[in-house]
Amino acid sequence: MFRRSFNRFCAGEEKRVGTRTVFVGNHPVSETEAYIAQRFCDNRIVSSKYTLWNFLPKNLFEQFRRIANFYFLIIFLVQVTVDTPTSPVTSGLPLFFVITVTAIKQGYEDWLRHRADNEVNKSTVYIIENGKRVRKESEKIKVDYIFTDKTGTLTENSMEFIECCIDGHKYKGAAQETDGLSQTDGPLTYFDKADKNREELFLRALCLCHTVEIKTNDAVDGPTESAELTYMSSSPDEIALVKGAKKYGFTFVGIRNGHMRVENQRKEIEEYELLHTLNFDSVRRRMSVIVKTQAGDILLFCKGADSAVFPRVQNHEIELTKAHVERNAMDGYRTLCVAFKEIAPDDYERINRQLIEAKMALQDREEKMEKVFDDIETNMNLIGATAVEDKLQDQAAETIEALHAAGLKVWVLTGDKMETAKSTCYACRLFQTSTELLELTTKTIEESERKEDRLHELLIEYRKKLLHDFPRSSRSLKKAWTEHQEYGLIIDGSTLSLILNSSQDSSSNNYKSIFLQICMKCTAVLCCRMAPLQKAQIVRMVKNLKGSPITLSIGDGANDVSMILESHVGIGIKGKEGRQAARNSDYAVPKFKHLKKLLLAHGHLYYVRIAHLVQYFFYK
């Protein structure tokens, strides 16, 4: 009792509230229950230490608790009471000065605390009258949709040259095949001299059209060249193509003084002056180099996706190579087409001037460069195509199966060809053998003269099919998948652009809403031939769905950064194409298989711990 009274005295509480009434549910309180014995303190906020009448004694007490102040106080008292040769002023004046300044400082600070307390305690409080209890769901924190890249994420991004096609004839990777003998789908065929020149032209294109560098071994006396050349490049495809050309006898041996050096089958060194490099980008889907031979001829070599190269070559040269490209894509290989053209000296002077002006432009440099590249890469001659294998990552199929079993929907967004991406989806079990595939691609909508009309017909047809097979009862999607036909959707970048940018009229429903209805009913979605910005558009479109589903994106390259930044959760894989994705992500993992443990183990435990923490918070 004495301690409580002493604390009240020191705290400076002038008035205590005798009772406290708590309203629960805003029910009126009877008169007999209006006053309840005080057990708890009131809700006034008091952060000040002093009051007006206890400031001086309490402040002096706190200051003389310090050893230094108390020591000088004793010295001053001794000098006052005892006759000493020194004046008491010499000890008392510094002590009183320090005590006075400290008291003024602490008094001012306490006055500021008093003023802040009065503002809070006298502020208006709003209470709810005639209210009711409402149960509100907490914000969703569980992932609903997973968007993944293919190359380097589902696959190893470790390329191996498998075969190539030159003027419609297939080569399986043996050096003797280019020595006048080719392996075709039928009987073996012998080439004449002209075809031999085409073979060498194709292999020279592989050795010249790239950005590969030679790694040198540093020794004490300087760099030494090893017998086995080590290639380095930001693109594993280019390394695989250079190694593939080496199998056929053409070896890229490096760049010296601006000249690219190639060793041919006869062990002769050929040098080509590198004039310009038209770098690869995700919009053009191709790259080119302009070189000058020792004889003075200027050549342009171009390689890229079939959809980017075929429209820029002569039409009569396409059919022989197109069949091989489609067959290789169905086998799961990554395909590239190779073309070239000769440039006259006068034309090169014009091209060189345009390239320099575009590179020196201070405004709209990217647009000007793209326009110049587009003008240069026209009227080319198709030479052939290549097939490169990219093996599936370890446990990629098991991871996708586990994510499906957990009720997550997995979408694959890739820039690869549709047939290649489809084969990979079957290999990683995103598509099952019983899955019925619905295609919204350039091939399916080009059957009609008006693409928008054909697209509208397909959208309506697919929606009717899915709504007929899926009942409207509120059952879980997982149960619906097990009891009904599974559907998978395949769409390419051109068709997606047509859906998002189509002209809407009265006869045509909203393509975007119909497309989303179809996607929601499919067990898996494959988006191929996607540009980086289109990947981000897909993620944004799903994020804005009703219910605001939580999205997760995972990728390994710079072209996946926009998709990772757009989603709620971004995961980057430390791949062979740099660490742009890992640096722009929320989490970084070494392999795709670690996504299973990250979501189903750590994610689940994190969710449980957060739930316990929230319960503990309300308990306290």
TrEMBL record:
Cofactor(s) required for function per UniProt: Mg(2+)
GO biological process, one term: phospholipid translocation
Any one cellular-component term (Gene Ontology): recycling endosome
Species the sequence originates in: Leptonychotes weddellii
Family listed: Belongs to the cation transport ATPase (P-type) (TC 3.A.3) family. Type IV subfamily.
InterPro entries for the chain: ATPase_P-typ_cyto_dom_N (IPR023299), ATPase_P-typ_P_site (IPR018303), ATPase_P-typ_TM_dom_sf (IPR023298), HAD-like_sf (IPR036412), HAD_sf (IPR023214), P-type_ATPase_IV (IPR006539), P-type_ATPase_N (IPR032631), P_typ_ATPase (IPR001757)
Main subcellular location: membrane
Location of the protein in the cell: Membrane
GO molecular function, one term: magnesium ion binding
Record's keyword terms, sorted: ATP-binding, Magnesium, Membrane, Metal-binding, Nucleotide-binding, Translocase, Transmembrane, Transmembrane helix
Residues involved in ATP binding: K543
UniProt cross-references to PROSITE patterns, sorted A to Z: ATPASE_E1_E2 (PS00154)
SUPFAM superfamilies the record matches: Calcium ATPase, transmembrane domain M, HAD-like, Metal cation-transporting ATPase, ATP-binding domain N
EC number(s) per entry: 7.6.2.1
Name assigned to this protein: Phospholipid-transporting ATPase
NCBIfam families associated with the record: ATPase-Plipid (TIGR01652), ATPase_P-type (TIGR01494)
Superkingdom, taxonomy of origin: Eukaryota
Domain (P-type ATPase C-terminal): residue spans on this chain: 582-620
Protein topology in the membrane: Multi-pass membrane protein
Residue ranges constituting the P-type ATPase N-terminal domain according to the UniProt record: 36-91
Reaction(s) the record says it catalyses: ATP + H2O + phospholipidSide 1 = ADP + phosphate + phospholipidSide 2
